[in-house]
Fold these 2 entries.
Entry 1:
Amino acid sequence: MPDNMNFGELEDFIAKMIPQSDPVWPRAGRYIDGIPDEHRQFPEHKSLRAKVHAWMATRSRPRPMWSGITENDLVFEPNSTAFLNWLQRLFGDDLP
């Protein structure tokens, strides 16, 4: 994971930054969980990725997962702030 401390993928990291009080996040989860197995186009271990993307699709400007950082849709914690600082050093002025 980007924090180099926990197991998981980028989606696990992003999901931790979705505001706890967001009313759409649980709905995105229920939507993805409600898709019958025979209709899923993704493996079970990618369910969190699908939930994050479903949530991102509800933002004021639906866009890819990584752009939640630049649009202030996500809540930054100490680990995510360190990751954002690293991204800024890597990509320069293209990030906030």
Entry 2:
Amino acid sequence: MLNQFSRTQLLFGPEAMEKLRHSRVAVFGIGGVGGYAVEALARSGVGTLDLIDDDRVCLTNLNRQLHATRKTVGQYKVDAAKDRVEEINPDCRVNIYKTFYMPDTKDQFDFSAYDYVIDAIDTVTGKLTLVEAAKAANTPVICSMGAGNKTDPTAFRVADIYETSVCPLARVMRTECRRRGIKHLKVVYSTEPPIRPLEDPTISCRRHCICPPGTRKCTVRRDIPGSTAFVPSVVGLIIAGEVVKDLINSK
């Protein structure tokens, strides 16, 4: 019977679509990368999605985040993303967690319940905690490396963390993974050297922050990263493609 996934089924076949329908994927970080990954998974027929992020949509997210529109500014990103998924596939079960994933919140999540985990968060501590939890549960995980301060969407590669180069975040992750005895980790990284963002006081979040009081702010960083519409989106779609491929080929 013709359905919204018929064109996908023409490529993968009915058994693969059943695998996707019965799969549960957790996406940690629903920003520029994670938002596109969520959308692609929903449009691919993944049956259950867990969305984890404590941040709200900001005006400065409109340049790159799929669920960010004038109407969603101020909403929690997980709420906005859930609304989009339900418009795309109302049969998809969406679980949302307004949580900043770190060591003190990791016990909220049962990683053995997931068929795949996507790391699209931007703190090294959170990433390492996430990877360790997924590895301990024998759950496949894929991590986004640095997507900010990049302008070349063709420079991204899928590789093991120990095969990466150029990316400063990947360098840190390599060292920390080795220190923790993590032997393999699938990542998406860029071979493009990062650009140092301008510090323009006329458009600086440091001087003109519009985030609500009490929310976690991007100004805690040394540099507020620059971004484009066409780099984080590519990373998110590459990640979703890897997840779909691995789920279909799993036993």
